[in-house]
Amino acid sequence: NPNDLSIYAKKSYFMFDNEIVCVGSDISDKTGTDVKTVIENRLWRNDDVLSINGSAVTPKTKTVFSPSDAPPALGTEIDARTLHFTNMGGYVILEDDGNKLYYNKVTNHYNKTNGYYGEELPSQQRGTRDFFELYMSHGSGDAQTGEITNNMYCYAYLPEASVEETEQYFANPDVELLHRTSNAHAVIEKK
Questions:
Q1: Distance of CA 121 to the CA centre of its chain
Q2: What is the tens place of the pLDDT at every residue in 5-21?
Q3: Which residues, at least 6 apart from 71, have a Cβ–Cβ distance to it below 8 Å?
Q4: What is the pLDDT of residue 13?
Q5: What is the signed CA dihedral for 32, 108, 64, 29, rounded to 10 degrees?
Q6: Each residue of 133-165: pLDDT tens digit?
Q7: Distance between CA 70 and CA 89 in Å, rounded?
Q8: Residue 65's closest CA among 18, 117, 102, 106?
Q9: Cβ count within 10 A of residue 15
Q10: What's the pTM value of the predicted model, to 2 decimals?
Q11: What is the DSSP code string of 135-148?
Q12: Is the confidence at residue 65, as pLDDT, over 70?
């Protein structure tokens, strides 16, 4: 609702030659719920591999078939500065803002996850698939002020980068965050 400012954030996206830099600030919440910035939400294919800080991991799957079986409010917490998905690319957390990273790998019916908003799909399209969500938690805000302690972020998405390229980028980022305030976000490419 554009008139309801219970949850508020300023977000910017800077697109350079090999990366997209995502910047957020002024995140506030008066609802008392955990505020999340979703970094990745996608279909998990059988050949997909998730690497965290350069090492492959095997996410555990939770099966969800009805709204009452919804995934936990927070998924598996990870301590990561780099993440990589096969067939997708890498993510590098550029600023350590105190946000916690989490992931969920969930098995669900198509009609619960594909944008049909509860409408039944034709029988030939019904089935289950694994879906993966990666997000950072900012915590919940003060009910009166909306203030959240971890109210900003900055990360780079590296389309089609390998695990090695993602780790190299973390060691020597191509970009620099110049400004992240209520008034403006600014990022410069160094090369």
A1: 27
A2: 678 889 999 999 999 99
A3: 62, 64, 104, 106
A4: 97
A5: 0
A6: 888 888 887 777 778 877 899 999 999 999 999
A7: 28
A8: 106
A9: 8
A10: 0.81
A11: EEEEE---TTT---
A12: no
CB-count exposure of residue 75 (10 Å: 0-12, 13-18, 19+): buried
Which residue type, as a one-letter code, is found at position 122?
P
Sequence-distant (≥ 6) Cβ neighbours of residue 124 within 8 angstroms:
none
Angle at 41 between CA 37 and CA 43, to 5 degrees: 175
Rounded to 5°, the CA angle 51-161-187 comes to: 105
* Helix or strand holding residue 165 (H, E): helix 163-171
User: Which one is predicted more confidently, 57 or 161?
Assistant: 161
The three-state secondary structure class of 103 is strand
Q: What is the mean pLDDT of residues 95-108?
A: 77
Write out the two tokens for 18.
């090999």
For residues 112-147, one letter each, b for 16 or more C-beta atoms within 10 angstroms of the residue's C-beta and e for the rest, the string is bbeeeeeeeeeeeeeeeebbbbbbbbbbebeeeebe
Q: How many helices and strands, by DSSP H and E, does the chain display?
A: 2, 14
DSSP secondary-structure letter at 69?
G
Q: How far, in Å, are 65, 74, 125, 153 from residue 33 at the CA level? A: 23, 11, 34, 18
Residue 169 pLDDT > 90: yes
Pair 166, 157: CB distance under 8 Å: no
